[in-house]
Amino acid sequence: MKLIVAEKPSVARDIARVLGVKTREEGYLRGDRYLVSWALGHLVTLVEPDELDEKYKKWRMEDLPILPDDIPTKVIPKTRSQFAVLKKLMASPEVDSLICATAAGREGELIFRLIYQEAKCRKPVERLWISSMTDEAIREGFAELKPEAEYEGLYQSARCRSQADWLVGMNASRAFTLRYQVLLSIGRVQTPTLAILVKRRLEIDRFVPVEYYTVSADFGDYQGTWFDPKNTDEKTASRIPDEETAQRIVKRVRGQTGTVQSVTREEKREPAPQLYDLTSLQRDANRLLGYTADKTLKVAQSLYEKWKALTYPRTDSRYLPLDMLGRTRQTLMKLPADYQPLVKGIPWTEEGKLPFSKRVFDNAKVSDHHAILPTPQTAQLDKMPAEERALFDLVARRAIAAFYPPYIYDQVRIVTAVGEDVFKTTGRVTKQAGWKAVVPEKETSAKKKDAEQEQALLPDVSQGDRRTVAKASARKEQTKPPAPHTDASLLYSMENAGRDLQDEALREQMKGSGLGTPATRAAIIERLIQVGYVQRRGKTLNATDKGVRLIEIAPEEIASPEMTGKWELALNEIAEHKSDPARFDEGIRKMSAFLVGYARDTKNEGSFPPEERRGGKGGRKKAPSASLLEGAVCPLCGKPVQVSDKAYGCSAWRDGCRFTLWKDCLARGGGPALNDRLVTMLLRDRSVRGSTGTVKLEEGHIRFYPKDPGAKVVSFPIAYQKKEK
Length: 725
What we know:
This protein is of the alpha+beta class. The protein is 35% helix and 19% strand. Helix 9 packs across helix 13. The radius of gyration is 32 Å and the shape is flat.
């Protein structure tokens, strides 16, 4: 009897159905040849520091760094009952071997191995590795089971990743929390990701708009924009620094006759877009459908597991292996009826085969999983929720478009001289729609769409033709700050982290590594929101004051994508047996010790802002609640005081002022809760008497002296940053 271990109950049920395993038992399904059971995601995890040693229950700098020779594992209490089922089945005499059927990736491998080791199982294991959940794919997978030993590199990579995140996260978070007296979460991947968002916020905050003018001329059948032919920068060549100069140009050219100096037409081609991997699908779904990265992953996973409509979504490849040429044809022919007219538009060969393209088929660029495709069974679109239908549509159209011919157009540029002034008119004229006939209309931005409409109306002019300037006008404009990041742009930056490195060799080495993996990037973004470092406002992601402050005090080694990119590259090489796991572990331990030392010894002073409110799903935050408290100034530096929903603090916290009064600091000891009126009077008079006692500011503390002489005085430091539990 073989025991099959799936990652989720739904996957286990699908496997059992295909294999004819029907009898339901407690926590598993029984058949003649197979027992099919499941995990519930992770059932086993690494222990907490205080489970290594009682002394770690109290956070103390002198106990850091925590660097155990080996980090033990434990059964997660919430899912202990299902682990007990698996352990019993693994030990059962009727089970002679196991089949690992967890998700075919790094995390899925770790889930199974930890369960297997915690259960102290020694029975032989085979690996099921499939890229879709269709019945056909499951049957093929069981016909091609591999020895689990072939995936040892993948497991070692997963183990190293898990222990690295524990060592860096536990040590750095404790050290910096103790150093700055505010709860801080620091991570191997999340901190450099936060740095990307902080960099963009600071660019926006420091941006100073510059006003300029542009001049346009109406030549009757086309429009032109004035430009300086001596300026080779296309972006700034049309900018006129002041209104007076712009109006002089308008007066010079209005009613005058211009001559077409040149007309250039350059044929350009845009090849069909490549198939989707998870990150590119998340980016397009964010841009076109407004989905967050996390939502896209969940919807794609539903299409994979529940609807059997997509292949494995957590892939980092945009290619297919050569042996999938025939199956891809079958996939396209099985798409729902609405897509078949587009499928017929593919330039099929005379033998009825798909056209071959190295942009689609390349064995060298497929690792664990190929690009995301629809499965070769007709999707039941009428039964799917709207979100699943919309995402399936993106994938289906991309799968068709990948085999279409290029989009071909003429890039047209007309230069018209009016006396000493010259005007440019640019546009494009479509010659072959190609793959653009397949992608949704909305995939073309409104800006591009307007440009194409304008360009389609360009007249057929020749050099030497003359035109009268019917109208001319000047328009005031100003430079714009960089746009805030969205899920789409942040995912791109994470995927391409390291591209700005000065070291060319290192930049080349980091190609394809980036921050995190396609499967983890969505969770990293959500984690940053959850811990209060990032706010999501509509489609934009913005670093909070707390996030900015963390990057200010974090060392470059943990905030820069360089080190994390190197680690991700090393993890990939471990999976491919090209790198030594022990060497990676040693590097992580050195980094953990360095981060503790940095936090302990740094001279970087300053405090963190009061926490902002969080609410809504997924840790979504409401708008910041901090506002200035009218008439109140900081007793430490004299700057205005701001109030949030939990505390009063100095508005100059970024400059190092640590003044903070928690609203409930006195109430915790039996005194009054602080409110705006009381704090305003207290900061002005240093003493406020009430019916139950007197509140005073003295000797760097806020104190409550009860009227009852036997009652205890409540005292709190006014520069205290961490709210005590």
